[in-house]
Design the sequence.
């Protein structure tokens, strides 16, 4: 794909996100472009830009495109080894960690047509029993494909779809419904809740004990995978378990999950705050009324108590407040309150503040001024040193966004600067002391760098292999989907072929049973049918005459005498029987009656003629 195609693809993805709310920007580009190109080929569109125009004119095309992109390949008890681990290890561990009355919450992401969600239901029902299962378990099954969710809610599956379900479980949990499918038990189906959910955009379901995401992450790029895994970490309880597909593995630097059974792709959550901190945005904002507001006296006392200098300038440019630290530092008095700020020395000494205030209010953002020197003396015994500040100018606004004024805070960083200078001096001394050691360590460092380079190359190779494996798995599922379509087409073609063969055999039987010689010709007088009695009468076999012009054949009928009758029949006349002198295959002279009957198609168009030849001897 060239740069132009890449840009057009991104424009198409943004269009789908803006118009229909489907965000495919986190999907891997090779697989995504291949799926979209397949649909474009089906509607004979070249170029992503032209396809956007096509979507604008044909709104129904969105559904067809989404069906093509969202590959719904799933089955009951998919990857038997994984489900063996879930049944023997994961579910017993979850039940052992809970009290008898505790709820068990399960989330089946990317559930497609529901096979995996109902597999989870059967496994948990076997472990708990019907009554306890219906009382304690909730299974949330989600997907972005609405048609697939509709099919999943119906819970009706064919014998082929149920082939992986053990016979005893099929008899226990599925009921025939009389139309060739079996339906999952209605009383247990209420436990499974289906809903639309986008793993990339929607907030995760919380307090989950068991979460499955089978062969879904492989469709996303590394950044989106990491974001989804962070959401999974937030969703799971501290003892929660994550199950991935066989083609997927957690990112090598992901610290939120630990491998419980890597071969079966079973992972446990690593409890901790980092992932939850990243997902605080999922929580509902608090009640502002409950938080309360500081009254004027409390706010004034708070400003007076802070250890750094702070002053407030109102929207009119007047000094509204200066705390004790500010008054002491910049020699301000109570009479200065209410004066224009620009008239005060502090507005330009030790640094020009008026331009910073204008910038902060214009941009509605904080403006920081670093390392401001204040020449006023700072006593340290007999010595005096200048004071250094970091100045932060912050615009103040009310809830409607209207400007209220400006807050200016002076943070004394003199001590920190001194410590930094002392640290620099100590570092210089250390550098001098370690010069000889550094010379010795250079060879070791070189060796370490070579080893690090080798390790990075191996990690890169491993990630490339993982990406290749995911791509191959994606293509495998696409091929599986295509094979299923081809199988369906082959079944239909086989049925039609069998029906055609039956019709052909029936017609052969009819023609063979007639006691007259029957010849069927098309409008060009080419023979298409030459029955058995015609072979016996004239001595020519079917293979010798079919496809040849009747008038070019050499047999015992004077063809020039019957040509007008056949032509009249082809031109629309019914034609009258004619009797001619003929010679049969034994060389015997006979009288033969020729009858020509029109052969009309279903639409009434004349396609040929049926010529019957009857021996009168």
Sequence:
């Amino acid at each position: 794909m060239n740069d132009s195609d890449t840009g057009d693809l991104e424009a198409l993805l943004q269009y789908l996100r803006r118009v229909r709310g489907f965000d495919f920007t986190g999907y891997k580009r090779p697989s995504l472009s291949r799926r979209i190109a397949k649909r474009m080929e089906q509607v004979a569109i070249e170029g992503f830009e032209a396809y956007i125009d096509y979507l604008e004119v044909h709104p129904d095309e969105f559904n067809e495109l989404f069906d093509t992109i969202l590959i719904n390949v799933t089955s009951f008890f998919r990857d038997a080894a994984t489900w063996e681990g879930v049944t023997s290890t994961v579910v017993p561990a979850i039940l052992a960690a809970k009290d008898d009355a505790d709820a068990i919450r399960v989330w089946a992401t990317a559930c497609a047509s529901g096979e995996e969600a109902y597999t989870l239901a059967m496994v948990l029902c076997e472990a708990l029993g019907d009554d306890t299962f219906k009382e304690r378990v909730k299974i949330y099954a989600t997907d972005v494909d609405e048609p697939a969710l509709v099919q999943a809610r119906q819970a009706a599956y064919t014998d082929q779809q149920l082939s992986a379900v053990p016979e005893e479980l099929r008899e226990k949990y599925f009921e025939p419904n009389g139309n060739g499918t079996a339906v999952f038990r209605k009383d247990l189906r209420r436990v499974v809740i289906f809903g639309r959910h986008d793993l990339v955009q929607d907030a995760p379901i919380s307090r989950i004990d068991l979460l499955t995401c089978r062969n879904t992450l492989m469709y996303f790029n590394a950044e989106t995978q990491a974001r989804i895994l962070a959401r999974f970490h937030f969703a799971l309880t501290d003892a929660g378990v994550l199950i991935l597909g066989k083609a997927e593995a957690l990112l090598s630097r992901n610290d939120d999950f630990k491998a419980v059974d890597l071969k079966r792709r079973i992972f446990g959550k690593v409890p901790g705050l980092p992932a939850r901190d990243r997902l605080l945005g999922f929580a509902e904002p608090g009640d502002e009324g409950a938080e309360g507001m500081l009254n004027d006296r409390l706010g004034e006392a708070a400003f007076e108590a802070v250890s750094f200098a702070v002053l407030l300038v109102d929207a009119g440019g007047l000094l509204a407040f200066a705390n004790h630290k500010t008054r002491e530092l910049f020699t301000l008095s109570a009479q200065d309150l209410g004066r224009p700020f620009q008239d005060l020395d502090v507005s330009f000494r030790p640094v020009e503040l008026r331009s910073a205030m204008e910038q902060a209010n214009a941009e509605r953002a904080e403006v920081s001024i670093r390392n401001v020197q204040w020449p006023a003396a700072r006593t340290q015994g007999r010595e005096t040193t200048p004071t250094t500040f970091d100045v932060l100018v912050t615009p103040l606004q009310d809830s409607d966004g209207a400007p209220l004024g400006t807050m200016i805070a002076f943070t004394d960083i003199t001590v920190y600067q001194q410590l930094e200078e002392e640290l620099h001096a100590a570092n210089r001394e250390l550098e001098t002391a370690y010069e000889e050691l550094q010379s010795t360590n250079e060879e070791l460092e070189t060796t370490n760098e070579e080893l690090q380079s080798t390790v990075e190359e191996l990690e890169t190779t491993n990630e490339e292999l993982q990406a290749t494996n995911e791509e191959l798995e994606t293509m495998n599922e696409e091929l599986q989907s295509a094979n299923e379509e081809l199988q369906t087409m082959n079944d239909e073609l086989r049925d039609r072929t069998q029906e055609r063969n039956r019709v052909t055999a029936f017609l052969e039987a009819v023609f063979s049973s007639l006691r007259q010689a029957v010849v069927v010709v098309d409008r060009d007088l080419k023979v298409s049918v030459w029955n058995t009695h015609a072979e016996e009468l004239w001595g020519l076999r079917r293979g010798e005459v079919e496809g040849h012009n009747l008038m070019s054949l050499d047999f015992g009928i004077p063809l020039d005498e019957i040509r007008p009758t056949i032509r009249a029949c082809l031109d629309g006349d019914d034609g009258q029987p004619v009797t001619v002198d003929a010679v049969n295959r034994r060389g015997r002279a006979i009288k033969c009656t020729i009858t020509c009957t029109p052969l009309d198609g279903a639409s009434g168009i004349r396609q040929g003629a049926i010529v019957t030849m009857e021996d009168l001897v």
